[in-house]
């Protein structure tokens, strides 16, 4: 029996054995274990995120990623494993094959694109920390997630609307890129390669920016030996947190490439040469699950918030078997803290502005002001002295700690009523920094 690949390549080597997709219970058991691990891992993530509402942008993107990976494991991957490895591949029909193909490519494209979106968000956070809350808002993140899912659905139905061919032929369901024809295969290959390049660019930007930040912090720490232990501890914490983000992104990129680069290469090789190896296809298919399999573990290890959620859910499950109920008060504390920050952010901004102006008056840094009525309109122009300059520089260098709260997305308060016009770049940074709500010291929103 010839492979469907021979329809596109006259000299193609069959991509499957003599009898396509022979029943293989041993392989089926291995895949079933992987499926269960995937479902359990992403169940912990999704449930944890449900307990941590309101979400920040990182939580929203991670939720989209986990839903895509969990659904991919629970529905299409389970269908493939049961029908091909246990029941028998001849039980496929045209309808079930179409459902399988559409769901598989919808969830996988959504997963790949969401990881790229997460990488872009982290890159903006480190390269443009003062503008991050303006460029990346929760509303824009929601629109981006919806757009990704709609795009994924559209790409998955292309073989059924004339771009390429469907996977069901000769009583079997074929699902590799080369099985849908060259046109569709090259479209998906192009999208996949583009995602890999974008993720790599984001990682390089993060690495370079974090390196500059660490170097700047080290220089500032050396020049402030008399600043006291608290200031030095603050600078050390900021450096550690940025290094943590850089390490985290390095691991994400590595897993991303391990999962998808072999898949793209073997399909590209198959489309160009028409030669396929069924064993290699199976191995690459398993490798493509590595990213989804390790992500829940990675998030739990690197983020205290998610780790606490995992432990709470695990103890909650044990309590159903008679164990003591876990204490979930820290979830309520998270919600109260988010609300408190929201209530106090505007007041804090005004207070910071008043303190800055008072400091300028006290230390003689006020050189020129308009008349009293202009001052009341906050049309103040002044030059701060060295003390205020140092404070502004410190807040600017710690901008990575002032971008987003780890427990909630909070809009920056509207301080347009101040209408303060500043002369130096450091004073501009000082004004902008006043509009940010502080990021939790643990930097747990990092992905």
UniProtKB/TrEMBL annotation:
One of its GO terms (molecular function) is G protein-coupled receptor activity. Its main location: membrane. Residues 410-422 have a biased composition (Polar residues). InterPro entries: GPCR_Rhodpsn (IPR000276), GPCR_Rhodpsn_7TM (IPR017452). It comes from the Eukaryota. It is found in: Membrane. Residues 41-299 form the G-protein coupled receptors family 1 profile domain. It is a multi-pass membrane protein. It holds the Pfam family 7tm_1. The keyword tRNA-binding does not apply. GO terms for cellular component: plasma membrane. Residues 410-447 are annotated as: Disordered. The chain crosses the membrane at residues 26-45, 57-78, 98-120, 141-163, 183-206, 248-269, 281-299. Keywords: G-protein coupled receptor, Membrane, Receptor, Transducer, Transmembrane, Transmembrane helix. PANTHER family: G-PROTEIN COUPLED RECEPTOR, PYROKININ-1 RECEPTOR. This is G-protein coupled receptors family 1 profile domain-containing protein. It comes from Pocillopora damicornis (Cauliflower coral).
């Amino acid at each position: 029996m010839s492979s469907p690949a021979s329809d596109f390549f006259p000299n193609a080597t069959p991509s499957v054995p003599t009898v396509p997709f022979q029943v293989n219970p041993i392989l089926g058991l291995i895949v079933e274990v992987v499926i269960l691990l995937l479902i359990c891992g992403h169940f912990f993530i999704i449930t944890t995120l449900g307990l941590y509402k309101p979400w920040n942008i990182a939580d929203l993107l991670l939720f989209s990623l986990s839903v895509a990976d969990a659904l991919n494991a629970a529905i299409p991957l389970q269908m493939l494993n049961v029908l091909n490895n246990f029941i028998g591949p001849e039980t496929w029909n045209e309808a079930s094959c179409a459902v399988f193909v559409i769901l598989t490519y919808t969830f996988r494209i959504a997963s790949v694109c969401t990881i790229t979106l997460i990488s872009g968000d982290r890159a903006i956070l480190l390269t443009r920390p003062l503008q991050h809350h303006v460029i990346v808002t929760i509303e824009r993140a929601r629109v981006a997630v919806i757009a990704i899912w709609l795009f994924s659905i559209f790409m998955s139905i292309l073989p059924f609307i004339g771009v390429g061919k469907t996977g069901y032929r000769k009583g079997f369901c074929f699902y590799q890129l080369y099985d849908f024809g060259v046109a569709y295969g090259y479209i998906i290959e192009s999208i996949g390669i583009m995602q890999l390049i974008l993720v790599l660019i984001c990682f390089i930007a993060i690495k370079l920016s974090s390196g500059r930040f660490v170097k700047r912090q080290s220089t500032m720490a050396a020049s402030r030996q008399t600043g006291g232990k608290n200031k030095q501890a603050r600078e050390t914490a900021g450096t550690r947190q940025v290094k943590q983000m850089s390490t985290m992104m390095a691991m994400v990129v590595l897993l991303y490439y391990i999962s998808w680069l072999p898949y793209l290469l073997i399909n590209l090789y198959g489309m160009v040469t028409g030669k396929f190896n069924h064993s290699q296809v199976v191995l690459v298919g398993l490798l493509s699950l590595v990213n989804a399999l390790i992500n829940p573990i990675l998030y739990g290890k690197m983020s205290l918030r998610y780790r606490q959620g995992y432990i709470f859910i695990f103890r909650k499950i044990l309590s159903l078997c008679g164990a003591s109920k876990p204490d979930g008060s820290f979830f309520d504390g998270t919600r109260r803290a988010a609300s408190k920050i929201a209530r106090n952010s505007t007041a804090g901004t005004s207070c910071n502005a008043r303190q800055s102006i008072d400091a300028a008056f006290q230390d003689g840094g006020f050189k020129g002001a308009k008349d009293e009525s202009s001052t009341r309109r906050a049309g103040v122009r002044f030059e701060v002295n060295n003390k205020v300059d140092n404070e502004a520089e410190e807040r600017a260098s710690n901008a990575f700690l002032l971008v987003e709260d780890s427990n909630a997305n909070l809009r920056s308060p509207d301080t347009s009523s101040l209408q303060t016009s500043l002369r130096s770049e450091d004073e501009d940074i000082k004004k902008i920094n006043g509009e940010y709500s502080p990021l939790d010291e643990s930097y747990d929103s990092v992905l």
